[in-house]
Amino acid sequence: MYTEIKRVIKREIFNTIALIDSLANMNCIQEGLIPIKYYEKILKKVSANESKMNIQYKLSNGKICKGKICYNTSFVLIKNMNTCMIFGTPFLTLVYPFQVTEKGLITNIMGKEICFEFIKPLKTRELNLLKEYLISHIE
After folding, report:
1. How many domains does the chain have?
2. What are the respective helix, strand and coil percentages of the chain, to the nearest 5?
3. What pTM did the predictor assign?
């Protein structure tokens, strides 16, 4: 499920499209999307799709904004990723509790409904599979 978001790093605003992926254990960002000066050097080994990757950079203080509401979260820099950004479990934890509808991922914060609208509407089958996965993993 893809959504359009605004991200803020040190007062610079970047608009991008992100994949919301409940199977991802980290928030990831494509190399070259944000200037390297905003990252900090780390060395971490992770597995993705049964392959090992070395992660060398982390963005610790990224803000994901929808309207006037911003969520602080971190990202790891991934080389050769074919998606601009992936919102994984750390992001979903920030917006929890949420609902997934045909329109998007909907949450409430400070009495205000926030919707991360899907760029392409989900098909009923996709929505049902997602709900089944989320329910079975949250309980």
Report:
1. 1
2. 20, 55, 30
3. 0.76
Under the banding of pLDDT at 50, 70 and 90, the label for residue 49 is low
CATH number of the domain at 103, please.
2.40.70.10
At residue 21, φ and ψ (nearest 5 deg) are -130, 105
Whether 9 has a pLDDT exceeding 70, the answer reads yes
Which of 32-41, 49-58, 102-111, 128-137 is modeled with the greatest confidence? 102-111
No. of H helices and E strands in the chain? 2, 10
Distance CA 28, CA 18 (A): 10
Instruction: Give residue 71's domain range.
Output: 2-138
Distance (Å, whole) CA 11 – CA 15: 13
24 pLDDT more than 80: yes
**Three-state secondary structure call for residue 21:** coil
From the list 50, 57, 56, 4, the residue with the least C-alpha distance to 34 is 57
